[in-house]
Specification:
35% helix; 11 strands; alpha+beta; five-stranded antiparallel sheet; D-amino Acid Aminotransferase, Chain A, domain 1; 3 domains
Length: 308
C-alpha cells in the first residue's frame, strides 16, 4: 500500500517521468537488488548506473564537471563532519543563531527523542512537526483540535526508527534522531510562505529556486542573483514567473553568510509576507545528484560554478 501511494504521489507531482524516476531510484538504490548490485559492481559503478537514466548521460567521477557529477563526487569521495551538524534540523539552529542572528529562526516549542513526551496540550493551535535527521519527514498542523495524537506519536516513532541516508548521503547517518516541534509560519499572501532555495558556490549566490504545488502538480522556476529567470527546467516544468521579492538582497546576504567557507550548499529561506525572513534548512546534495536538467548542457553550466 505504501509503495502504491508513493507511486501515485510521484505521478501527480511530475507525470510519467517522475514516476519512472521514483521506480528506478527505489529499485537501484533502495531495494535488496541495490545491495547485490553494489557488492557486484562496486560503489562508484553502482552510483553511475543509478544516476545515468535520471540525469541523461553517463557520469564521470574522475573529472566531474556537471552539477550532478559534483554532488556524486561529494557523496563518494569526501568526508566532512560539518555536513552532519549543518544538515541536522535541530543542531543547525545554533549555527544560524551565531552566524546571522536568532531573528531568522522559527520558535522551537519542543525537542525530544521520545514522542510520548510531546506536550500537545501546551502547543499552539498551529505548529510543524519534523524529524531532524531526514528529509520529507514532517507534518503541518493547522488545527490542533483535529489531530489524532496517538497517530502522530506512532508516525514520529517510525521516523525515529529510520536509518536515513537520503540517496547515499553519508552525513545523515551521523545525526542523532530527534523530533522537533516548531512555529507554523502564517503568510498574508500565500497559504504557505514561498520557499526560496539559494544555490551558493564559494560564498556567492548564483541561482535561486522557487517551487509551487509541492503537494500536487509540481512546477519550479530558477532565477539568477539579479532575478533574471533562467531558460532551463530542473526536474519539474517551469512555474509561472513571480516578481522579484523585496527582501531578495537581505535573503542573499543571509544565505551567503551561512554558506561561508563551503564550496557549495543550498540554503533554504522562507519569505513570509508581513512577517519577515526565516531559515529553512541547508542541503548538501540537492535531489541526491539525480536531478535532470533540460537540457543537460545546463547541468554542466550550473556545475561550472562549483570548485571542488
Amino acid at each position: 500500500m505504501e509503495i502504491t501511494h508513493k507511486a501515485q504521489k510521484a505521478y501527480r507531482k511530475g507525470g510519467v517521468r517522475h514516476l519512472f524516476n521514483e521506480i528506478w531510484e527505489r529499485t537501484v538504490f533502495r531495494s535488496k537488488i541495490s545491495y547485490i548490485l553494489k557488492q557486484a559492481i562496486g560503489k562508484e559503478q553502482h552510483e553511475r548506473l543509478g544516476m545515468a537514466p535520471l540525469v541523461g548521460y553517463w557520469p564521470d567521477f574522475e573529472n566531474p564537471r556537471s552539477f550532478n557529477e559534483k554532488i556524486a563526487y561529494r557523496k563518494l569521495k569526501t568526508n566532512k563532519s560539518c555536513f552532519s551538524t549543518l544538515s541536522d534540523k535541530y543542531l543547525v539552529r545554533e549555527y544560524v543563531k551565531e552566524r546571522v542572528g536568532e531573528e531568522y529562526l522559527t520558535d522551537l516549542y519542543h525537542v525530544t527523542d521520545n514522542p510520548e513526551t510531546i506536550p500537545f496540550e501546551e502547543l499552539p493551535d498551529k505548529f510543524v512537526i519534523k524529524a531532524n535527521h531526514s528529509s520529507g519527514r514532517n507534518r503541518i498542523v493547522t488545527n490542533k483540535s483535529d489531530i489524532d495524537t496517538t497517530e502522530i506519536k506512532y508516525e514520529c516513532r517510525q521516523w525515529l526508527s529510520e536509518d536515513f541516508d537520503g540517496l547515499r548521503e553519508y552525513w545523515y547517518t551521523e545525526i542523532k534522531p530527534r523530533i522537533t516541534i516548531e512555529e507554523f509560519l502564517d503568510d498574508d499572501l500565500y497559504e504557505v510562505p514561498l520557499d526560496y532555495k539559494f544555490f551558493v558556490f564559494d560564498g556567492e549566490v548564483e541561482y535561486v529556486q522557487v517551487d509551487y504545488g509541492r503537494f500536487g502538480a509540481h512546477t519550479r522556476s530558477i532565477y539568477d542573483n539579479n532575478w533574471e529567470e533562467q531558460p532551463f527546467e530542473y526536474i519539474y516544468p517551469k512555474a509561472p514567473p513571480i516578481d522579484k521579492p523585496d527582501s531578495l538582497e537581505e535573503m542573499i546576504e543571509v544565505a551567503e553568510s551561512l554558506a561561508d567557507n563551503l564550496n557549495f550548499v543550498r540554503v533554504d529561506l522562507f519569505d513570509v509576507e508581513g512577517g519577515g525572513i526565516y531559515f529553512g534548512e541547508m542541503t548538501f546534495a540537492p535531489e541526491g545528484g539525480t536531478g535532470r536538467f533540460q537540457t543537460k548542457e545546463y547541468d554542466f553550466a550550473v556545475g561550472s560554478h562549483w570548485s571542488i
